[in-house]
């Protein structure tokens, strides 16, 4: 498993170290962190995990290819950067850190695409820092699609009782009705169903309505009749068990009572407000459509607490555990 340590100014290195400190010894041997060993070691010292014997050592790619042999409780680290990270104050955006975290992701994808690792788990990056460094991607997903050569990707959120795919992601709300199409829904729901079959998720897919009361027969909007229902008809003819459109205030209640195997929300907050009510600390972001498993902590860099060493690593722990599970099944 390749794990990228995220933006050095955020909580990514901290939650990575905390998550690894609780990982089983045998699983630690299956981990390569992409980042800087010295930075991770400093974080480990601050939060006290060195007392448990955990440490970090940079190894070369040739050592990885030859089958590295690291000592007990020593985490292997691959650093694609030629220079050490500058000791800048945590909690702010820096171009140098944006460039570093961007290159960590690129290198991590390379490890997986070349078959050296079988899955990727990513710690949080700062989109603004990426942009300051000249890397103009909205986030991980778009970069991963480009690096892997994938034609279509999806953003899913995984919790024990709730699994939600976002049909659209980082868009202004006013643009959502313009972007929603029959083709988009068929693509995203088809990709979700393929994933569910691959990993053994059973049950129907529940599709959220866009408008209140699912449009109330056109009184509150016609997207349900013009876009959602035609997409459902196509998908159902293909044998995909999708139902809806269901008003969102009903859909999530039904899902928590076991009605669906997974849900499709039409826009970011429609899916993530209820999801994070349940899984704010331990939800996992999962990318669909890639030729490998990629998971991520379901939170950002948390600049407001970075450097205070009080971050909750539950989401990163869950992301690592899910990546290991799905890539070994």
Essential attributes:
12-stranded mixed beta sheet; 42% helix; Isopropylmalate Dehydrogenase; 329 residues; 2 domains; 13 helices; single chain; alpha/beta
**Unreliable spans:** none
Sheet with the most strands: spatial strand order:
3-4-2-1-5-12-11-6-7-10-8-9
Tally of discrete structural domains: 2
Q: Count helical runs.
A: 13
Question: Which outline best applies?
Answer: elongated
What is the CATH H-level superfamily of the largest domain? Answer: Isopropylmalate Dehydrogenase
CATH architecture of the largest domain: 3-Layer(aba) Sandwich
Largest sheet: 12 strands, mixed
Q: For this structure, what is the CATH class of the largest domain?
A: Alpha Beta
Ends: how far apart? 14 Å
Structural class: alpha/beta
Structure commentary:
The chain has 329 residues and is an alpha/beta fold. It has 2 domains: 2-150, Isopropylmalate Dehydrogenase; 160-274, Isopropylmalate Dehydrogenase. It contains 13 helices and 12 strands. The chain has a 12-stranded mixed β-sheet with strand order 3-4-2-1-5-12-11-6-7-10-8-9, sandwiched between helices. Helix 10 (223-237) links the parallel strand 8 (204-208) and strand 9. It is elongated.
